[in-house]
Amino acid sequence: MEVAISESWKVVLNEEFEKSYFKNLVEFVKGEYKNNTCYPQGSKIFEAFNVCPFEEVKVVIIGQDPYHGPKQAHGLCFSVNDGIAHPPSLVNIFKEQEADLSKPYPVSGNLTHWAQQGVLLLNATLTVRAGEAGSHQGKGWERFTDTVIQKISDQKADVVFLLWGGFAKKKQKLINRDKHHILESGHPSPLSANRGYWFGNKHFSKTNTILKQLEKNTIDW
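Structure for Uracil-DNA glycosylase, as requested:
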């Protein structure tokens, strides 16, 4: 498995690709894809980076694992391919977007248009075995994606980090609050959202308010 990642990220992450843990991770992933059905398809593993170059990153949303059902995952956290039913968390993301921005509920669950505007949709673990949530956790992906967050924090300024749920909030330690902006809420999953920890967070409008203040282009969510 060649690391098919955009040039802008290659420059930033080059050292990481040479580390022994990453080489071990590549061998693990190669074996998993050879012997099992895994998601997303190999060419889409680094899709989040390829659609959103390093220099374009304005907003970061952190997910945990790719979806593990057929045809869902395509390398962007919370996003699904066109024509695929919206998973429960994505339904709640769109409901909040609808309420916050008075926009109609989207037909497609594909969030590529967010990524193309500078929203890095980063899962902590980039691959998964079909039907087995969390099956590729603890193999090295988390170390890699933590480094991604750290590099953004160190080498950029005024990025808006949206930390949804306990898992994402733990990534705060990697982010320099003095030079970046952090918005937190509960997770959009039904369990959290139905307890009142998600709806009403207004993260979409709040993000755009911050971007306006920074004289950056806002996101057309």
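The domain at 7-214 is CATH 3.40.470.10 (Uracil-DNA Glycosylase, subunit E).
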